[in-house]
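User: Structure please.
Assistant: Input sequence and predicted structure:
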Amino acid sequence: MHKSSVIILMATYNGSLYVEEQIQSIIDQTYSDWELIIRDDGSTDNTVEIVKSYLKIDNRIKFIKTISNYKGACANFSNLYSWMKLNRSEHYVMFSDQDDIWMENKIQVSIDVLKRVECGSNNIPFLAYGNLDLVNELGKPIDHSLGLSDHLAINTLIAQNCAFGCTMIMNKQLVDKITNIPETIENHDYWIALSAASFGKAHYIEQKLIKYRQHSQNVTNQKHRTIAEKISFYLYKDNKRQALILAKRYGMIKRFYDEYSQEMGEYNRIFLKNYFKNVYSGRFALLFFIIRSRIKRFNFLQNVAYLYINFFYYKIFINIIDKEIDRN
């Protein structure tokens, strides 16, 4: 049986320390019928030179030539996705960060899972996303877990995205549904997760298939924090920035709703409409809606922080949204 082709989209920017190890981990995959498309966002180190050296080693690797100043990872993936939509029509699409390490069976396991859930599905858009091992800058394991959810739904996505782009695989039906990924949203994988939850299905792969590199500045790397320090971080030190993130997330979800509301199922469409209504109905109405609708984050402390910020920083949250509306 002929293997289905896979397109892998990799966005790079100043990744010279790690990109070679990541590319090599893709070359070493047990599944061989793939094409790696790489786009750089204006690196000032030798990332491009490293990438180009691999073009001579493996003809499955392609480099998109662009004149680009740094616009951020989401804009980079957005442009990659648009290029892919115009130039490729392969069955499966995956995403790759520049600094992770893929387990050698990542593609094979991902495709096997997606084919299994696709069986008899009548062309339903499908997304599979998975678990991951956290490692430090040197690739050594970190004794910490993100506690990812195995359930991808609109109510949980309002609070947080649990599907990481570097673990995703999309079938052609889902790719066909997503016309584009906006450059200015929070993350490309967030938009894809919203799409899968709105008019498709998502499946969680429990097996850890990548080593997800955590740098010292990463929020997810909180291994050395005590419980008191985590409470202080979530409830006091970071709340104004979190209010800004909530407002930007609201704008992304509203933009998604405006573009795709007619393609959603009735339940998701009504749910989001009620969410938008309760956001502007006051802090108490919003808080009750969040609790009643089980809108929640990964763990207890993050949930407490989420309720705290929505309630006590409600005015800041609303003011930011209104300013963004006026600006647009």
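Strands lie at 6-12, 34-40, 61-64, 92-96, 101-102, 126-135, 169-170, 201-213.
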